[in-house]
Amino acid sequence: MAFTVAIDGPAAAGKGTISRAVAERFGFAHLDTGALYRAVGVKGGDPVAAARELTVADLARGDLRSLEAGQAASRVAVIPEVRAALLQFQHDFARRAGGAVLDGRDIGTVICPGAEVKLFVTARAEIRARRRWLELGGEAAESDYETVLGEVRLRDERDMNRADAPLRPAADAVVIDTSDLGIGAASERAIAAVMAVRERR
Ligand code: DC
């Protein structure tokens, strides 16, 4: 039976970790939809053609998690034809038998408005930037904290203000603010939200 969990939110809010925890707990498949846009962004050339021709190998590239790939993803993500080219794959993934967790920016609002569970995972920009900076190596990272904070704010601005599928919580999303919450506690909240819906069915 299909069962979709849509998890949206800004960069570095904890969506990935929470999505993996939910998928593991319920035995659902997980799709990090940001990786689709990152792969299109780093491929170069015409982004619409890149989106239409995206392959599994493109998603396995080792450089998808860099700051540059994040910015490139956010830039190609404003192009409606790029978003349209990635739609069918996400729809099919969401309705696969056995359940699916998709995380991104527009899953609960545009890709899967009928998702059984919608979560919006967020945190203050300074906290998200600090996490991303630590992930990149902290003091040993190539970029300093202020640069990472600037990148996070720029990406928020672009993702929230684009015309097509901007980042915003669905009206019926459960909001989880991870600013002052450990990732374990945040994952538990997400799991409880899924459990509550499954028990009602
Ligand atoms: O989640 P992420 O940081 O990997 O996403 C990278 C960029 O891709 C993000 O800044 C905007 C874009 N994106 C999107 O527009 N829609 C999605 N569902 C997922 C990501």
Would you kindly provide a brief summary of this structure?
The chain is an alpha/beta fold and 201 residues long.
Description:
The protein has 201 residues and is an alpha/beta fold. The protein contains ten helices and five strands; from the N terminus they run βαβαααααβαβααβα. The protein has helices spanning 15-26, 33-43, 47-52, 56-59, 67-76, 80-94, 107-111, 125-135, 145-161, 183-200; strands at 4-8, 29-32, 100-104, 117-122, 174-177. The protein has a five-stranded parallel beta sheet with strand order 2-3-1-4-5, with helices on both faces. It is globular and about 45 Å long. The relative contact order is 0.22. The protein binds 2'-deoxycytidine-5'-monophosphate. 2'-deoxycytidine-5'-monophosphate binds next to helix 2, helix 5 and helix 9.
Key terms for this structure?
globular, 5-stranded parallel beta sheet, 54% helix, alpha/beta, 201 residues
- Spatial strand sequence of the major β-sheet: 2-3-1-4-5
Q: Can you count the helices?
A: 10
The helical percent reads 40-55%
Percent of residues in β-strands: 5-15%
Mean pLDDT score: 96
Describe the sheet with the most strands. Answer: 5 strands, parallel
> Gyration radius, to the nearest Å?
16 Å
- The oligomeric state is single chain
Q: Helix and strand string, N-terminal first?
A: EHEHHHHHEHEHHEH
Q: Could you tell me the number of beta strands?
A: 5
| Poorly predicted ranges | none
Shape: globular
Distance between the termini: 12 Å
Bound heterogens, unique: 2'-deoxycytidine-5'-monophosphate
What structural class do helix, strand and pairing data support? alpha/beta
